[in-house]
Design a protein that fits this description.
It contains 17 helices and 2 strands. The protein is an all-alpha fold. It has a two-stranded antiparallel sheet with strand order 1-2.
Length: 403
Amino acid sequence: MLGSIPVRIACGAVGLFLLGLAIYAGLEGTTAPDRNIALTLIYVTAWLGFPVLGVLFGDLFAAFNPWKAIATPAALVYRRLAGRAPSHLGYPRWLGRWPAAVGLVAFVWLELIYGQGSDVAVGLSPDAVARAAIFYSVYTLSMTAVFGRQAWFKNGEIFSVYFGMFGSLGKLAFRDGVLGSRRLLSGSSRWVAGTGSVAVVIASIGTTTFDGAQEGVFKDGIERLIEWSGDIGLGATASVRFAGTTFMLISIALVALVYLLGIRGMATVPGGPDRRRLWRGMGHALIPIALAYLVAHYFSLFVFQEQAQFTYLLSDPLGTGTTDLFGTAGSGIDYGVIGSDLIWYVQVAVLIAGHVAGLMLAHDRAIAYWNDYRLAARSQYWMLAMMVAFTCFGLFLLSVSNA
């Protein structure tokens, strides 16, 4: 039983071990990003794996969360020694999940933008990843001590919120430690109800959009902004990071604008709720789109890097060339395991499936908001236009990057 105490302890121990391995490898291993297990473990295996696993099997990260594995026994020890439960500040309702939304952007920024200005040839320095993991661990445990485990892991802890968002789409769910089933996609409406939840979804789509556009649609604009930044006196590293940050924020703003236009259009249909309620109430329809963008953009990366993860990185996690734990340190990546045609078909399929799922969720919510089914259907013309815009833009980004 996944909710049993022994299994939870074992899963938490695994999560804590993997976090420790990533930090140790980042600090003590090679500076080559492709030979050090830290980057692949955090930014590929965990970052891309848990969303898909969440849809298939429920929010598994909740069991493997390394910071929860520390916070939970720490609270029990405190209760035993002090004779009472730890006292915490009340979590502000107005703050909601905004810390997770901002943290999500910062996490992606570290890889995509800070890494561009690092001192390695390609990608983010493993040492920087390790130091960021230490900083985030201290931050998370501090916030847990201030606001309590339940409040912080539900609202502020980046990865609990982010992976839980995708887990809300799945048929399986944990309730009070017990695994149960529910209607597919139904959990998303409850997940998005809190303040700042829509911001997390928009940040997810926007950051993935930026990653797909920075070497395509945005490339010329980023290069011109880098040149302009240098002309006004910024150094080379600062110019690169300033340009990347600017266009990442533009990407997020564009996603928010498309969603806002759709909401404003729906609000013109009589008999429905106001724009504020629509903004929050329709946000769950964006979660399948966020998943579709994630899978479509990173599908090939995941397939290739997981070969590395379970061969030479597993045998030589530090990348120093001095260990071969499983006899696979000399292995390589087979880039022919999937062809370009298959990659394109998968990308198109998941984009279409994600947007269809989003329309289904929006339609169900519209029926609940408008008593007249004809008005509900009219409101969905705006949602359909928004979904078509996201689909076309996603396909355009993929076609440019695959060209």
